Amino acid sequence: MSLAACMYVSIRCAIAFLSLLGSGWGAETRPNIVVVLCDDLGYGDLECYGHPAIKTPHLNELAKTGVQFTDFYSTAPVCSPSRVGLLTGRSPNRAGVYDWIPEARKTSPNRRDLVHMRASEITIAKLLQDAGYQTCMAGKWHCNSEFNNDRQPQPGDFGFDHWLATQNNASPSHRYPRNYVRNGKTVGLIEDFSCQIVVDEAINWLGTCDPDRPFFIYAAFHEPHEPIESPASLVETYVASSRDRNEAQYFANVANVDTAVGKLVSGLEKLKRRDNTLIIFTSDNGPETLRRYRGAARSYGRPGPLRGMKLHTTDAGFRVAGIMNWKGRIQSPGEPVSTPVSALDFLPTFCDLAKAKVPADLVLDGTNFLPALKGKQIARKKPLVWAYYNAINEARVAMRHGKWKVLAKLNGGKLSKMPNVTRENLHAIQAATLTDIELYDLTKDIAESVNVADEDPARTAKLKATLEHEYRELVKGSHVW
Predict the structure, then answer these.
(1) Which residue among 168, 169, 237, 261 has its CA within the 20 to 30 Å range from the CA of 284?
(2) What residue ranges of the chain are covered by domains with CATH 3.30.1120.10?
(3) Is the pLDDT score of 7 beyond 60?
(4) Which residues contact 185 (CB under 8 A, 6 or more apart)?
(5) 134: helix, coil or strand?
(6) Are the beta carbons of 382 and 365 closer than 8 angstroms?
(7) Distance (Å, whole) CA 170 – CA 221
(8) What is the pLDDT of residues 170-223, one digit of tens each?
C-alpha cells in the first residue's frame, strides 16, 4: 500500500473513532453506574449515620472514601412511587403511581389493579441502553400490579437487558425466597438471603458482559422491609445490644445488607470494573413503624433526628441515607455534604455521564447532581415537591426549597385520604386549596420542631406561592386512572 493510501486509511480510522466518541459510545471514558436501593431503611439505621449498635463497615468505607449526603431525598415516602420516580427522573404522580401497588385482583377499589408504570414512561435503563450501556436489574421491582404478565410492561420492556425480580416483597421472607422471576421465567427456591441473591445475580451477569462497554446495575434489595429474616450467626451478635430477638433480627438484617454491599464491591474489583464505577447507595423511603400492621413485628428502623416515619411527608418519610463513591472523582472524600440531592436527579445526571440523549419534550423534575460531588451547589431549576394523598400525617403536600421545608394541608386536612387518583376523585384534588402552611429552617431544625411560618409573613407568602405554582403544575401533569 502506498504512503498516501496508508495516510488516507489512518485519517478515515481517526474520523471514525472521533465519531464514535461523539456519539456517546466511548466506553473508556464513560463511567459504569451501580445503584443499590434498600427498602424501608431508616435515616438513622447505618453506623455512619449514627446508629449506636449496627455495624456497617463496608458502607462506612464507601462514605469515608466518597460522599455521605446529609440531605438526600427519595422521590416518595412509600415504595412503588419511589421506585418509579427514581427510574424516570419524574415525580411518580406524573406516571400515575401515587401509592404502593398491590397485586392485581379481579376486583380492586380505586382502580389500583390497573396501576403500573406505563410503557410510555422513559427510564434510566432505556436511555443508557440506547447509548450503548449493558443493563441489569435485580431485586424488588414493584412497578406494576400484574407482574410477569404481558398485560403490563415488565423490567425488560424498560431497558433492562437482564433482570431477576419479584413483584413486591421476597416470599416467604428474605431467607430462601421462592418468588423470583428471571427474564420472564419462574426460578423457584433459592437457598440464600435476598440481598446476597441480588448481588450474586448482578456480579454473575457482569462476568458475562463485554468488558469494553460500560454497564448500569440497579440492585433493589428487599431488606430491611418485612417479613424480616436474617442469618442466625448475625442475629446472635446483636442479641446483647437489642431489646429483644425481633430487634436483633432487624439489626442483623441491616448488617447483612452491609455484607452484601461489601460482596458487590469485591465482585467489581475482581472483574476489574471498579475504578471507573459510580456506586450509589440509598433507600426508597424511611423506616416502617413498629407493629403498624400485623406482619411488622420486626420493624425496628430508626428515623434518627428526623420527624415522622415511612408514609409521612415530614422528612423521615423520604429523607434517607445517600452515599456515593467514585474513585478519583470526589472533591473532598469523607466530608459530609449538606446540598439537597434527590433520586429524581439520577436520570439527568446519568444521561450526562453516559452521553445519552434525553428527549427534548420529556418533563423532568430532577437535575444534574455532579456539582455536589465537587463541593459545589446544584443549579436546581425547580424545588423538590411531594404530593402524597395517603399520608399518615395531615400535611399531604411538601416542598424542599433551599434550606426551607414547607408543609401544607389540603382543605384544612379535610380532604379524604386517597391511595389513587381516578376520574371520580380528580375534581376534589383539583379544587382543593393549600392551607395550614408550616415552615422549617432545616439548617437549624432538622427535626421540624419549630414552625417559623409566622416569623416573616412576606417570606412565608412567597414560599407558599412557589409551592402553589409547583403543586398545580404537578396536578395538571399527573396521570389519572
Answers:
(1) 237
(2) 384-476
(3) no
(4) none
(5) strand
(6) yes
(7) 9
(8) 999 999 999 999 999 999 999 999 999 999 999 999 999 999 999 999 999 999
Q: Which CATH superfamily is domain 26-373 in?
A: Alkaline Phosphatase, subunit A (3.40.720.10)
| The C-alpha cell that represents 6 in the structure block | 496508508
CA distances (Å), 289 to each of 242, 255, 297, in order? 17, 20, 9
Please say whether the beta carbons of 31 and 326 come within 8 A.
Answer: yes
Range list of β-strands (E), 291-412: 319-325, 341-342, 384-387, 397-401, 404-410
**Hey, what amino acid is at 297?**
A
The topology under which CATH files domain 384-476 is Arylsulfatase, C-terminal domain (3.30.1120)
Q: Does pTM surpass 0.90?
A: yes
| Amino acid sitting at position 381 | K
Angle, vertex CA 392, rays to CA 386 and CA 396, nearest 5: 30
Strands (E), 100-236: 134-140, 162-166, 181-182, 185-186, 215-220
- Separation CA 438–CA 312 (nearest Å): 14
Q: Which of 346-372 are b and which e, b meaning 16 or more Cβ less than 10 Å from the residue's Cβ? A: bbbbbbebbbbeeeeeeebbbbbbbeb
- Do 223 and 255 meet the contact criterion of CB atoms below 8 Å apart? no
Length reported for the chain = 481
Q: Please, are residues 195 and 256 in contact by the beta-carbon 8 Å criterion?
A: yes
Distance of CA 439 to the CA centre of its chain: 26
Query: How far from 430 is each of 313, 449, 467, 477, CA to CA, in Å?
Result: 20, 30, 15, 12
CATH 3.40.720.10 placement within the chain: 26-373
